[in-house]
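Justification of resources, computational component.

The compute hours requested in this renewal are based largely on the per-chain cost of generating structure records like the one below. Each record pairs the submitted sequence with a full structure-token output. That output is archived, and it is also reused by downstream analysis tasks.
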Amino acid sequence: MMDPKQRMLLILETLKTLYPSSQCTLNYHSSFQLLVATILSAQCTDKRVNLVTPQLFKKFPDPWKMAAASLEDIEKLIRSIGFYRNKALFLKEMSMDLIKRYQGNVPKQRSALIQLKGVGRKTANVILAEAFKIPALVVDTHVGRISRRLGFTQSQDPLKVEIDLNQFVPREDWIQYTHLLIDHGRKVCTARKADCTQCSLNPLCPKEGVSSIKK
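The structure output for this chain reads:
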């Protein structure tokens, strides 16, 4: 039986070969804009967010402009995104918090980020990883689903999944692991149906589920 850490290294090597350009697909030009885009991406595709943010960032490029905006003006620009009213409120209050607490700067600490309106652990990890290159493992639906299929976790809880994965994914690969699994989840190991016959990870995927993985 292959050691799970060794198997993870082989999985990473395979995925890096398959998706050499794997990276964040949200468009942004500052840590603030990434924070805005990530808040908008909750229960929404990155593609849809990227259609909305050019005009949003043109009008409200920084926390000062966003904080001063009316909710109605923000809502008009993000109306095509799900839960746009709630998200407009999040963006305005988050911007006000940044100005009040951090002089308009996005903090580099997870504990500070999750205190901002509309920011949970997943969003905080995105900011740490993408804006500041601080190792953080983002668990979205693709990462959770595929990691369970590969037998590295049994949990449905994103925090528990993250903790489980931290045991197996080398710290220097935490950021990239997320992007690689998102790409693989979109193209091969989809939520609707995993295309196992065409999957390059098939030889490394436990046939008997998580019971075959040593803890």
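The CA atoms of residues 151 and 209 lie 6 Å apart. Confidence is low (pLDDT under 50) at residues 208-215.
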